[in-house]
Amino acid sequence: MSPETYAQVSNLLIPTATVIYVLALISHAMEWALGRASVAQAPAEQEEAKAQLVASGATASAASAAVGSAGVAEGGSASAGSSISGAEGAASSERLDAASRIGLLLTWLGFVLHLGGVVTRGLAAGRVPWGNMYEFSITASLAVAIVYLIFVQKYKLQWLGLGVTFVIAAVLGLASLALYTPAGPLVPALHSYWLVIHVSSAAISGGAFTVGGLVSVLYLVKARAERKALAGGTMSASLRRLPSAEAMDGTAYKVLAFAFPLWTFGVLVAGPIWAEHAWGRYWGWDPKEVWSLVTWVVYAAYLHARATAGWRGRRAATIAIVGWFVFIFNFVGVNLLVSGLHSYAGV
């Protein structure tokens, strides 16, 4: 096929993938909506919830009391909650599982189309597909999907689907509507294999930062729900389906521990080498370089605080979320709002 044909295929696949991701988002939103109403927990669910609360630091007696309270529907008595039939509870659980499976399948379909759009964009341009802001957006959002789907297989992170599909659909929508640039050759300064190393490392680590940030947000939500349950409140079915807050805290740490050395190598090692090749200096305090360093400092503080001060839970999650917002500003704000050598809009 000709470059023009590849470009047309890419321009068709990316919007189609965006629509599929939106459908996945709707499916995951339905999953959460179906679980909003608190229902009486079956004995097995009560034991699981109790174990989660004990793992979070609650005493066994307090966890038992909390789970007993959480099993009562909002506004009803314990006897009213226990009157819900096992068949109704099983049907509700099946609906939640079905919505989750459909959302994950749609995410896989969106990923395949997304991957095809990125590959054909590269074939149309005759180079790696991240030479401008549009291309970096579709590639970085693909990295988010890749990291998520890998960790779904390894750590069963399908419960993160709502946030992941929202981020990917939003980035692809913004790229298609506001950032689109026709495929073309790179400017001379960008011709280097260090571009491939630098940008691919930044994209993959950025995808992991996004997944880690979303896990940290859900950690705060689940931790708050567990505290309310200990105080005698209720917990929705959607939140009960999430891992314990402690487990999510550990998952966020694993994801960010994977991303940090990749960001260090790709941005602070390969980046300066490429800068010397392109502009004749390793470091020039360009806005993009400054914010890349700030991003590194925030995540270094996160890992250092966990390793030396023993920071866990809310404080660690807060740093992870701050780091994610710093990364997002580095990715979007610096490129669009600040003029510098790294501005992709004019490439």
Automatic annotation (TrEMBL):
This is C-type cytochrome biogenesis protein CcsB. One of its GO terms (molecular function) is heme binding. Residues 130-342 form the Cytochrome c assembly protein domain. The chain crosses the membrane at residues 6-26, 102-124, 136-152, 159-181, 193-221, 255-275, 290-309, 316-338. InterPro entries: Cyt_c_assembly, Cyt_c_biogenesis_CcsA, Cyt_c_biogenesis_CcsA/CcmC. The keyword Membrane applies. Keywords: Cytochrome c-type biogenesis, Membrane, Transmembrane, Transmembrane helix. The lineage of its organism: Bacteria, Bacillati, Actinomycetota, Actinomycetes, Propionibacteriales. One of its GO terms (biological process) is cytochrome complex assembly. It is found in: Membrane. It comes from the Bacteria. It is a multi-pass membrane protein. GO terms for cellular component: plasma membrane. The keyword Magnesium does not apply.
